[in-house]
Amino acid sequence: MISCPALLVAAPASGQGKTTIVAALARLHARQGRKVRVFKCGPDFLDPQIHAIASGAPCQNIDLWMCGEDDARWRLAEAAREADLILIEGVMGLFDGEPSAAELAQRLGIPILTVIDGSAMATSFGAIAYGLKHYRAGTPLTSAFANRVGSNYHADLLKQSLPDDIHWMGHLPRDDFAAMPERHLGLLPAAEIEDLSARLDRMADALAKTEAALLPPAVEFTEAERTSLPPLLAGKTIAVARDAAFCFLYPANLACLEAMGARLVFFSPLADPALPECDAVWLPGGYPELHGKTLSANRALWASLAKHVVSGKPLFAECGGMMALFETLVDVDDHAHWMGSLLPGTVTMQKKLAALGLQEVALDGQPPLRGHTFHYSTAQTKLEPFARATKKQGASEGEPIYRHEHLTASYLHLYFPSSPSAAAGLFTP
What CA–CA distance (Å, rounded) separates 130 from 161? Predict the structure, then answer.
């Protein structure tokens, strides 16, 4: 067993301030010289970017279904070996999703701090905290923190409303400067928040005056066995797109490819005129719709990518990466952009959510790859799906997977460690 102070920060719903509080705590303790490791419950690419900046270390994702309990236990135990503090940000509300953040905390024995937006309530604060703790027997909710509080008097009302078995950890006033800016897929990527460090420091300074700044109790983490991966990608060089348009990358996915022997090189479809020398290409998700004009203008890059595919080398594109491979991308302002044209058809942005949820797909006789989908666009294409994913809830039909020669594309964001052999197959002729 390995012990390390740990805390899961949850809330009754999205929008309560979880990300801000976790990032501020990470920054506060990192400034004090502690090694802080932050995890995010569930599939998410944006919050982890902020936590990585706040803590000074990559933020990993853990999820009992998408990643698996063994994967979560192993990553937490590995973090506990070197960390002085482990912080875990929940997802949506504490009991939302199946499995939820509450279930993860209960299975792993991690205490929960609930963050509640107290701006429009008084003693109902205590009722909400009580409900979160007692809704399901065994939920390890130990403390509560109030966000966006109007005054010290208001804070006292909230504090006094708590039952005896939930500890008051303090409050923060409403601070519009510290709030993280958002767009349609969630928070802005960390690289686009120019004053992110100032926001984090401001919130860290405020949290330093509360009990939330104290180290949580130590948690015992079980050392899980980690099976070494076969060298299925030994000698292979994989070119990975990484820039403002393609920035949705799980650190675990990159590590998984490297563990199977791949050498990773990075390029920017926004700036580079050609692919680097490589055996395979990965176009991850991101925001191609926000960079349509620049991507459209980089015809040399698309020609290089087409040459790569024609030569019989693998290309894997997911979500935003797939969107960029269609002939045309129509943005939310109805502007059409000529894209890579490696896939026939048009992808069109819309203002309402098109798909959201956990899914899995079995490819080429391999164990299923798990992942999630989250997009505001729809694709119109004459291509017939090579395969279809299955939704976790309801086991109904999910996202189509398209394949042409060695080009594989889908809206799915895959978690490679869920089936390393299947992931390797995406990058192998």
Answer: 10
